[in-house]
């Protein structure tokens, strides 16, 4: 596996592979890799000739008071894991490499970004759209892989690609979980023992909400209330939001119908966790 830190080195790698007619799969991450990230890399490995993974903690998508400075990092371990998942090229730029001077262009995501995490983290998806655009241009992927744990991020990136005609196919990958149902996340290391034992209730609350919707008797407001009540009494965390919306449009629903997402975010002492279930009702 080639590890590159600069844009010229990355471009040289990409140009060589493109000239040889090889198909490139891209897996963007912020590092501190776990099995969720590796499942994206393994899928990319199966579906492409070349896999490029990027590790970049993007300051643009962190708000003031968020965890940019203390986001967990372990490049040595990440290199081993990425190599074991079959990554061909690992791009690990410094912030100055990606943003050498203030940009004269600012991206604003106007759709799918004002709900859920976008509402709680203003500017977050503008930062995501900016870095993903740069990574698409730098790596020229045929396919790019994103986790559905970050379902709003996937909806925004799919919208970005469609709106701006990026020549890339974006692929959403199912969430990888711990045995007790907690979604794998780099931020899980922030949880205290007690918080870790309660965190699986996030997924359980969402399952309860979806089962309620499937029974068909409750309104979206009642489904959200039930999910919220369960979280309040079991998760031992502050509930940031519980939402039931259409997916991927993320519009409010009059009744639970069609393709939907039930999503929640909760806050523990040092970690904010998100999870969701995407489901269909006819
Ligand atoms: P991150 O490093 O948190 O920015 O995540 C990088 C990519 O991995 C994103 O597309 C995430 O949605 C995806 N990802 C994170 N956690 C998981 C998980 N548990 N299962 C599947 N994909 C994940």
From TrEMBL:
GO terms for biological process: pantothenate biosynthetic process. Gene3D superfamilies: HUPs (3.40.50.620), Pantoate-beta-alanine ligase, C-terminal domain (3.30.1300.10). Pfam families: Pantoate_ligase. Pathway: Cofactor biosynthesis; (R)-pantothenate biosynthesis; (R)-pantothenate from (R)-pantoate and beta-alanine: step 1/1. The keyword Cytoplasm applies. ATP binds at residues 30-37, 147-150, 176, 184-187. Beta-alanine binds at residue 61. InterPro entries: Cyt_trans-like, Pantoate_ligase, Pantoate_ligase_C, Rossmann-like_a/b/a_fold. Its EC number is 6.3.2.1. Keywords: ATP-binding, Cytoplasm, Ligase, Nucleotide-binding, Pantothenate biosynthesis. (R)-pantoate binds at residues 61, 153. The active site is at residue 37. GO terms for molecular function: ATP binding; pantoate-beta-alanine ligase activity. GO terms for cellular component: cytosol. It catalyses: (R)-pantoate + beta-alanine + ATP = (R)-pantothenate + AMP + diphosphate + H(+). It is an enzyme of class 6 (ligase). Its main location: cytoplasm. It is found in: Cytoplasm. Homodimer. The reaction proceeds by a bi uni uni bi ping pong mechanism. Belongs to the pantothenate synthetase family. This is Pantothenate synthetase.
């Amino acid at each position: 596996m080639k590890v590159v830190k600069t844009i010229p080195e990355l471009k040289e790698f990409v140009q060589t592979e493109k000239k040889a007619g090889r198909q490139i799969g891209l897996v963007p991450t912020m590092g501190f890799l776990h099995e969720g990230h590796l499942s994206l890399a393994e899928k990319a490995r199966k579906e492409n000739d070349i896999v490029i993974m990027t590790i970049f903690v993007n300051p643009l998508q962190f708000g003031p008071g968020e965890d940019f400075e203390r986001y967990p990092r372990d490049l040595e371990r990440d290199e081993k894991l990425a190599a074991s998942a079959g990554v061909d090229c690992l791009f690990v730029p410094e912030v100055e490499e990606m943003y050498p001077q203030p940009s004269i262009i600012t991206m604003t995501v106007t759709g799918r970004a004002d709900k859920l995490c976008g509402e709680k983290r203003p500017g977050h998806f503008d930062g995501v759209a900016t870095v993903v655009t740069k990574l698409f241009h730098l790596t020229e992927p045929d396919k790019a892989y994103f986790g559905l744990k970050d379902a709003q991020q996937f909806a925004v990136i799919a919208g970005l690609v469609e709106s701006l005609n990026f020549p890339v196919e974006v692929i959403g990958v199912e969430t990888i979980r711990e045995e007790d149902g907690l979604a794998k996340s780099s931020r899980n290391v922030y949880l205290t023992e007690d918080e870790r034992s309660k965190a699986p209730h996030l997924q359980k609350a969402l399952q309860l909400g979806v089962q309620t919707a499937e029974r068909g008797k409750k309104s979206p407001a009642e489904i959200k209330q039930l999910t919220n009540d369960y979280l309040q009494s079991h998760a031992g965390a502050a509930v940031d939001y519980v939402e039931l919306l259409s997916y991927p449009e993320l519009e409010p629903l009059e009744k639970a119908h069609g393709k939907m997402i039930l999503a929640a975010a909760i806050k523990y002492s040092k970690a904010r966790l998100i999870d969701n279930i995407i489901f269909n009702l006819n």
